[in-house]
Amino acid sequence: MVNMFYEEDADPAFLEGSRIAVVGYGSQGRAQSLNLRDSGLDVVVGLREGPSWERAVSEGMDVLPTEEAAAGADVVVMLIPDEAQPGVYEDQVAPNLEEGDGLAFSHGFNVHFNQIVPPEYVDVFMVAPKSPGDLVRQTYDEGAGVPGLVAVEQDATGGALDRALAYARGIGCTRAGVIETTFAEETETDLFGEQVDLCGGVTSLIKASFETMVDAGYQPEVAYFESLHELKLIVDLVHRRGLAGMWDNVSNTAEYGGLTRGDRVVGEESRAAMEDVLDEVRSGEFAREFVLENRASRPSLGALRRREADHPVERVGARLRDMMDWL
After folding, report:
1. How far apart are CA 214 and CA 298, in angstroms?
2. Using CA atoms, how far apart are residues 310 and 5, in angstroms rounded to an integer?
């Protein structure tokens, strides 16, 4: 049975009197910092000087250089991009960790794949909101919250889970509920989902659908609407009502066609590819590839970004989106 935690399970007293240093002020860093502050917790943001520093100050946050923020904190939360975390941790955070401190994450990548190896005398935990940062902040302001995941990798003090739940409450996640998981499970399922359907699979499907229609002689503009634009309508239905609810809200023609043809598109060959991708994630092969890509200044990623931006569905879409003022 899954372990679920809510407001009544999370005692804010476990963070009272503690200073929390949030490293980063991007999507998650900003949302979590503001929510923690508005929950009455002592928060400082660790940054280097630049636009993020200026924005944090303008929004009323206490801001310090990362090393100083970590030195004065009882809990340090790493919310900068995965590829930047190991260097910042080694240079500015690790030298300032003391016995009994907490080290927190919202994604387990670096700990799970040993890019960050915390000392044995600190708590290591994760609170991962299951939404973008903007929604974490918006729902908190509305008196609600987004669901999240909580995990403890290392319990040095005997109270790591209590700390993690108090943190989850501070950012609003216990209002909706948090599920207990592990660093390994969160990391591997997150990477798999991103690569197989959420980011990789869906964009490949859009491009293949668009190309198939255009190659068959249909107008690119019409193909764009059918392969990309209307996808949001379907995803919104699935998000709100699940798969069955989506089928209930499309036409009988769409329902019959989708149910009888969908498995031909995502068939055994696709399932075998999914198994391969999962094996690469679980074995650490993808992590090694990503780490090396970043050490080389991301040449492959740069080339892939340029190719993606130049795809015909992007060129056609840019023109059509200009017609849609509501976007």
Report:
1. 32
2. 45
**Tens place of pLDDT per residue across the chain (327 aa):** 899 999 999 999 999 999 999 999 999 999 999 999 999 999 999 999 999 999 999 999 999 999 999 999 999 999 999 999 999 999 999 999 999 999 999 999 999 999 999 999 999 999 999 999 999 999 999 999 999 999 999 999 999 999 999 999 999 999 999 999 999 999 999 999 999 999 999 999 999 999 999 999 999 999 999 999 999 999 999 999 999 999 999 999 999 999 999 999 999 999 999 999 999 999 999 999 999 999 999 999 999 999 999 999 999 999 999 999 888
Nearest by Cα to 24 from 113, 135, 125, 107: 107
**Helix intervals (H) in 181-311:** 183-193, 200-215, 220-224, 231-249, 252-265, 268-283, 285-295, 299-309
Residue 214's φ and ψ, nearest 5 degrees, are: -65, -40
Residue 321 neighbours by CB under 8 Å, 6+ apart: 327
- How many CB atoms are closer than 10 A to CB 69? 25
Residue type, 278: L
Give the pairing of strands 102-105 and 75-78. parallel
| Distance from chain centroid for Cα 251 | 33
As annotated, the active-site residues are 107
d(CA 204, CA 194): 12
B/e letters for 26-53, b = 16+ CB within 10 Å, e = fewer, are ebbbbbbbbbbbebebbbbbbbeeeebb
